Task: inverse folding
């Protein structure tokens, strides 16, 4: 009977639960035993608001096991530690706070590490630079010197506390500059490209043209923006050829300019620029700079003419007679003239097609700068630069092998110009070798290394 | 010394061989014509006193002249050309320039050959053909014409004539060679 009663009570209870007007859902049923989500969130906040949120670890350690079973946290680059599993709760931490036990805010690598690619730690404070998520707290030093910058400067950015002085955000900052070389110290004025306040530091002078200082090595010729415009005058150079150029005076050589002039090739120093052809095959440099308005500027000249033998140079400054020398003073609104004297090349010989043989030596001092400075030419025209037409070619050039057997095609004593024998560079040394009663000529071909086969 | 004008050909003969003993001097300018095949052998010296040329309109003909001299061939100073002194820069668009006409044409075989000292009006000697000699003396100097005379052109120019391979008698072309090329 007792058992039946117990069964009745249980059955009545279920009937009451499912069929009574006070029916509640299963969810509401469990809510009778577990706080609702809203209630739980409010309760959790009440708990956490009493905790020190500067360190999420403290939050975690102060939770009960039951709370820890419902809470978890992770860190974001935004400095947010949140429960990523149930989305029930979010902990926002301040700059410099620890997350997951280590300093990890805005480290560029997510949670779990300190420092990082662009962050740095000083004590318990995390400094972020590139990401700019959290800026450094007060007390930091100026940034490090950033190496040679524009014009050789080194720059570092500072403010009080070094806050907000980052590569991308320099508002409110100033810079310090130190020179890359000691000799640049002491020149005022900031470098271009920096528009913020300047306090302290050195401003180097890179000695570049355009720095508004006429530095050593700069002149009105190559840096007029710093040194001002130059005075100027013309320089003229002549070349004359005379068999007795070595013995004639400069005055006599000057008399040969109208009749014995040739086109020269010159090197002018210390300043030069493109020249023009003047009268009597002269070379003229117009408006050459005169740096010293009183004493003038000294110019010198040399020649690289290769067709004649150089003998001497004469100079005339300010319209006076030529005197021996290869340098002179150019003064403003005056003239400076050079006269270079040469002896003509000696007579020389040339062949065209066919073979050339000699049992002894071949000597023909061909002017080096001729268009076709070969001893043996190759076609029926004397100025063609196209070798080996379909109807002709150069022959071999052969010299002897005895004591006088030699060759030379250049006035240059250090170079016999074997390559000038002919286009093929076929220069042959003959060795005579008697054979029985018949004279047999025995040749050894001495091809030039880059001879044309 | 005898003075000789240009010998003549005989109709029907392939070559004409003339000989002379003692020194010989040419007389007048000689022109080598199509049918000329002259071989002149001199036991003595030869002085060439006039031009020996093969005109342009005959330059591809069979015309031939050969001097075989048992002595010295001397060219008179009056035979020659004026150097052109044309300055042609490397960048000059002209790609061709005709070879100047020769002053002497032929084959010259001798113990010595002297080109002759230049004079002011005909300093440059141009020879077309072949010069075969034991001693070649180059005496020309364009500088006697102009101080710049040697700066552009040679004082002597020897131009090979491939026509000689055809026109020369075989006996004058025989030569034996053995060639051997060595490692450069």
Result:
């Amino acid at each position: 009977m007792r058992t039946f009663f117990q069964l009745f009570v249980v059955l009545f209870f279920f009937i009451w639960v499912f069929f009574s007007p006070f029916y509640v859902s299963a969810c509401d049923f469990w809510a009778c035993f577990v706080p609702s989500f809203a209630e739980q969130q409010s309760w959790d906040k009440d708990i956490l608001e009493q905790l020190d949120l500067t360190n999420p670890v403290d939050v975690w350690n102060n939770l009960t096991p039951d709370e820890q079973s419902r809470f978890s946290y992770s860190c974001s680059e935004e400095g947010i530690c949140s429960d990523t599993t149930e989305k029930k709760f979010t902990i926002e931490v301040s700059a410099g706070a620890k997350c997951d036990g280590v300093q990890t805010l805005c480290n560029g690598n997510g949670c779990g590490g300190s420092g990082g690619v662009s962050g740095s730690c000083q004590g318990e404070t995390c400094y972020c630079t590139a990401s700019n998520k959290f800026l450094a707290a007060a007390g930091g030093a100026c940034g490090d010197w950033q190496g040679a910058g524009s014009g050789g400067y080194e720059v570092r950015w500072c403010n009080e506390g070094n806050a907000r002085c980052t590569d991308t955000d320099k508002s409110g900052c100033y810079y310090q500059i130190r020179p890359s070389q000691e000799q640049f110290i002491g020149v005022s004025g900031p470098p271009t490209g920096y528009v913020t306040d300047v306090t302290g530091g050195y401003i180097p002078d890179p000695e570049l043209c355009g720095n508004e200082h006429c530095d050593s090595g700069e002149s009105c010729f190559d840096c007029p923006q710093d040194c001002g415009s130059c005075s100027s005058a013309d320089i003229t150079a002549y070349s004359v050829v005379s068999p007795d150029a070595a013995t004639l005076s400069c005055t006599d050589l000057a008399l040969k300019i109208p009749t014995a002039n040739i086109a020269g090739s010159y090197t002018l120093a210390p300043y030069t620029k493109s020249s023009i052809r003047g009268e009597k095959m002269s070379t003229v440099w117009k408006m050459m700079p005169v740096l010293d308005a009183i004493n003038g500027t000294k110019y010198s000249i040399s020649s690289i003419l290769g067709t004649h033998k150089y003998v001497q140079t004469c100079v005339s400054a300010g319209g006076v007679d030529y005197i021996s020398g290869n340098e002179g003073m150019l003064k403003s609104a005056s003239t400076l003239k050079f006269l270079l004297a040469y002896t003509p090349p000696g007579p020389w010989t040339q062949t065209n097609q066919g073979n050339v043989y000699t049992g002894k030596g071949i000597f023909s001092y061909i002017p080096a700068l001729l268009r076709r400075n070969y001893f043996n030419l190759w076609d029926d025209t004397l100025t063609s630069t196209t070798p080996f037409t379909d109807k002709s070619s150069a022959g071999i050039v052969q010299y002897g092998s005895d004591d006088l057997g030699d060759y030379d095609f250049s006035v240059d004593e250090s170079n016999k110009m074997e390559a000038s024998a002919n286009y093929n560079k076929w220069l042959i040394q003959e060795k005579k070798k008697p054979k029985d009663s018949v004279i047999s000529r025995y040749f050894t071909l001495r091809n030039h290394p880059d001879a044309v086969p | 010394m005898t003075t000789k004008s240009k010998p003549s050909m005989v109709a029907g003969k392939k070559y004409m061989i003339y000989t002379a003993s003692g020194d010989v001097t040419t007389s007048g300018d000689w022109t080598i014509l199509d049918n000329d095949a002259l071989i002149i052998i001199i036991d003595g010296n030869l002085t060439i006193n006039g031009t020996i040329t093969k005109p342009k309109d005959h330059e591809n003909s069979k015309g031939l002249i050969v001097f075989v001299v048992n002595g010295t061939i001397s060219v008179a100073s009056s035979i020659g050309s004026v150097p052109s002194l044309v300055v042609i820069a490397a960048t000059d668009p002209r790609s061709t320039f005709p070879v100047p006409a020769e002053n002497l044409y032929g084959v010259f075989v001798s113990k010595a050959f002297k080109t002759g000292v230049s004079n002011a009006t005909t300093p440059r000697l141009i020879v077309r053909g072949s010069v075969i000699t034991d001693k070649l003396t180059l005496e020309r100097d364009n500088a006697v014409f102009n101080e710049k005379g040697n700066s552009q052109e040679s004082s002597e120019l020897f131009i090979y004539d491939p026509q000689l391979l055809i026109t020369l008698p075989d006996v004058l072309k025989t030569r034996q060679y053995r060639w051997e090329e060595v490692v450069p």
About this structure: Residues 88-96 of chain B have pLDDT under 50 and may be disordered. The radius of gyration of chain B is 18 Å. Chain B has one domain: 2-172. The first strand of chain B starts at residue 2 and ends at 4.
